[in-house]
Design a protein that fits this description.
- By secondary structure, the protein is mainly beta.
- It has 3 domains: 119 residues, Histone H3 K4-specific methyltransferase SET7/9 N-terminal domain (Single Sheet); 152 residues, Jelly Rolls (Sandwich), CATH 2.60.120; 213 residues, Beta Barrel (Thrombin, subunit H), CATH 2.40.10.120.
- The chain is built from 5 helices and 37 strands.
- The protein has an 18-stranded antiparallel β-sheet that branches. It has a 6-stranded antiparallel β-sheet with strand order 14-23-16-17-18-19, with no helix packed on it.
- A hairpin with a 4-residue loop joins strand 28 and strand 29.
């Protein structure tokens, strides 16, 4: 009995001690990450195993999970992390995902999220530094904007910091200082390549030592001193203009403004979006004009006369870099050089398009297919091409591709159609350049049984087409394939051309593999809108990388 009492006493002591250790195993923090008591905690952290930790909000939802190499005793904001670590919003949605190497240095892609769970930012780190000082930012509709931020740390972007008898440029205290020693003035540039002209440029410039008649500001879209744009200020006026092929066109010259700060940094901002350019100083719009052409990729700062200016920051934002409007950004659209359309001609992944669509395909050919509302991307190979007749046959060669149960349309028996017959196409015009990736329908009539310069291999039609329609199918009013769109006359009024079906058949006949040609005439009993719903499942977007 005495032994049993001692055993029970030891067990109780162990139990109490164990619970005390567990209680001490949780650390509590306020909203700023500073240590606090359990009663005042915003979240708590506990050790799971080894160096793996988890943190939880007071509502029980997870706050953090990952490995911590070294804990910061003063708070939860200077820990050294390892591997992939995740933080969450209080509603349980992803907040941030970061990747660290074994030394705790951030490497790889860090993803930031909106509270809705949608991606907000994607930032690539190399050895703890943002790669090229550039990252991608998304709005809640998935439209991607490329952001470049120059904060003048360690001269990562290779500004020309040197001193000569004409000028001097130094970076000190995260500020770029440019000094001109001659009446001609001086400038400094870096290259910030953009894919389009929709861009926002912002620079912080101190002109407090600028002489009254001297100017300083931003040069953008710079190719050379014969081709560039400018936004300049004095201590009381501003200038806006462009130089093209050496000819200067000043839109705003020596216009008065009260927005310029005589001391401190001035925020000069240029919004070159759509068909308008807007110029502001310290948040006040000064001038609006037609949009400016970007002649080259360089952006920089200029000062006239024997003067010195200081620049604290340069930010550029390239808008809608994937040109998808309100559609969600698809990573497969990155680095796409050109697009076209195509039509599936077999259940197991053969499709036809134009030769000129895939002519420059030195990289990957991607085929985007939407079936019954679901969109997927697949790799494809060029199997056979016919440059003379502008035709190519591709085959999807991707393990994720599932063959169609059937191809629900038919090749027209003789491949011919009469002048005046109604025809239509389904395709992807300018899919990544503003018109979006939903298949577009346009119709017209057969204008002639011969094509451009009386070419016998094509029809002339009045079907309106745009770049990107190339390779798309041409159907008759029964929903039967009679050809593929391949060209248009740029200045013509809805003059387009389509390669005839018989030339497609000829190319199919010399393929290494044989397959059954589409021969389902059920669509001929349907109205054209009903046909389009079915046929859109076989029309594909081709993306060349």
């Amino acid at each position: 009995m005495r032994f049993l009492n001692k055993f029970l006493l030891c067990f109780i002591l162990f139990f109490c001690l164990h619970n005390n250790i567990l209680a001490q195993g949780s650390s509590y923090f306020d909203k700023s990450g500073k240590p606090t008591t359990a009663e005042n905690a915003y979240y708590s952290r506990k050790l799971v195993s080894g160096d793996t930790y988890q943190s939880f909000y007071t509502n029980g939802n997870i706050y953090f999970e990952g490995r911590i190499l070294k804990l910061d005793k003063t708070g939860d904001y200077n820990n050294t992390y390892v591997g992939t670590c995740k933080w969450y919003y209080k509603n349980g949605k992803n907040k941030v995902t970061k990747t660290f190497d074994e030394k705790g240095i951030e490497n790889g892609i860090s993803i930031y999220y909106y509270e809705t769970g949608k991606v907000w930012k994607e930032i690539t780190y190399v050895n703890g530094k943002i790669k090229d000082n550039t990252f991608v930012e998304y709005d809640e509709n998935g439209v991607a904007n490329r952001i470049f931020e120059e904060d003048f740390i360690n001269n990562l972007n290779d500004w020309d910091v040197y001193e000569s008898d004409k000028s001097k440029a130094i970076i000190a205290g995260n500020v770029l200082e440019i000094k001109s020693n001659t009446a001609q003035g001086t400038s400094r540039f870096i290259s910030v390549p953009t894919e389009g002209s929709d861009i926002i440029i912002e620079g912080l410039i101190d002109v407090s030592t600028l002489a009254p008649s001297s100017k300083a500001g931003i040069i953008f879209g710079f190719k050379d001193w014969q081709n560039y744009n400018f936004f300049l200020i004095t201590q009381s006026t501003f200038y806006v203009g462009t130089v093209f092929e050496g000819l200067s066109a000043i839109k705003a010259e020596d216009m008065y403004t009260s927005a310029v700060l005589k001391t401190g940094f001035n925020n000069l901002k240029i919004l070159n979006i759509g068909d308008k350019s807007v110029f502001s100083i310290n948040g006040e719009v000064q001038f609006t004009t037609d949009s400016y052409r970007l002649y080259g990729p360089k952006i920089g700062f200029i000062v006239s006369g024997k003067n010195t200016i200081k620049i604290d920051k340069l930010i550029t934002k390239e808008m809608d870099i994937n040109h998808n409007g309100n559609q969600s950004v698809d990573k497969t659209d990155q680095n796409v050089k050109s697009t076209g359309s195509g039509i599936m001609i077999s259940k197991d992944g053969y499709l036809v398009t134009n030769y000129h669509v895939i002519e420059d395909a030195k990289g990957t050919v991607m085929v985007e297919i939407t079936r019954d509302g679901t969109t997927k991307n697949f790799k494809a190979s060029v199997i056979k091409s016919d440059k003379e007749n502008d035709l190519a046959i591709l085959k999807i060669e991707d393990s994720d591709f599932k063959p169609y149960a059937k191809i629900q349309y038919a090749f027209k028996d003789n491949g011919s159609t009469d002048v005046g017959s109604m025809v239509y196409t389904i395709g992807f015009p300018m899919a990544l350049a503003g018109m979006g990736k939903e298949a577009k329908f346009t119709d017209g009539k057969v204008s002639s049984k011969t094509g451009y310069n009386n070419a016998i291999n094509s029809y002339q039609t009045s079907v309106p087409v745009q770049p990107g329609n190339s390779g798309g199918p041409l159907f008759d009013e029964k929903g039967k394939l009679i050809g593929v769109i391949n060209a248009k006359i740029k200045d013509g009024d809805n003059v387009s051309y389509a390669i005839k079906l018989n030339y497609i058949k000829n190319l199919i006949e010399i393929l290494p593999d044989s397959f059954e040609l589409p021969n389902d005439s059920s669509t001929s009993l349907l109205s054209v809108p009903e046909q389009v719903k079915i046929l859109s499942n076989y029309v594909v977007l081709i993306k060349i990388k």
